Amino acid sequence: MQKLALFLNGEKPKNIPSLNKYAAVYCTDGAFHFLEEVNIVPDLIIGDFDSIQDLPKHIENIHTPDQNFTDFEKAIKIIIEKGFKSIDVFAANGMEQDHFLGNMTTALKYFNKIKITFYDDNQTYYFIDKKVVLNKVLNKKVSLFPFP
Predict the structure, then answer these.
(1) Cα-flanking dihedrals φ and ψ of residue 97, to 5°?
(2) Could you please report the per-residue DSSP string of the chain?
(3) CA distance 20 to 71
(4) What is the pLDDT of residues 18-28, one digit of tens each?
(5) 8 contacts 91 by C-beta, under 8 angstroms
(6) pTM of the predicted model, to two decimals?
(7) Is residue 31 packed enough to be buried (19+ CB in 10 Å), middle (13-18) or exposed (0-12)?
(8) For residue range 73-125, what is the model confidence (pLDDT) as tens digits?
């Protein structure tokens, strides 16, 4: 399964995972500067480019000016169109809980079209179907939250 790493403009991860396991690394325009600081060159930048003054010419980009959708939702649509089946999302919390809940709500909207897993420095979040088996959870906290 082709898996993609997507970086959003939220709280920057203290530890970046190895990106070798991903077919591609995408980011929204707000996350580009963070990736640049840690010497990661994304394969694609997606967004309305309100956060980038000088768009790098050596990196593919897709301008998505529609303000009726978040950059995250616009990125998901593009990622699905490109044929990816799984996304690992980093920096999704937006540093504010309403941003994170908005991102979770957006992910729920696409739950049946693509597998989305969120990572931050302390937790992993993802949607499950009716049944799931959890391994290696002894002495770990597991929380379940039912979305309607």
Answers:
(1) -65, -35
(2) --EEEEE-SSSPPSSPPP-TT-SEEEEEHHHHHHHHHTT---SEEEE--SS-SS--TTSEEEE---TTS-HHHHHHHHHHHTT--EEEEES-STTSHHHHHHHHHHHHHTTTTSEEEEE-SS-EEE---S-----S-TTS--------
(3) 25
(4) 999 999 999 99
(5) yes
(6) 0.90
(7) buried
(8) 999 999 999 999 999 999 988 667 778 888 888 999 998 999 999 998 888 88
The C-alpha atoms of residue 24 and residue 79 are separated, in whole angstroms, by: 10
Tokens 């990816």 correspond to what residue? 84
Distance between CA atoms of residues 94 and 22, nearest Å: 23
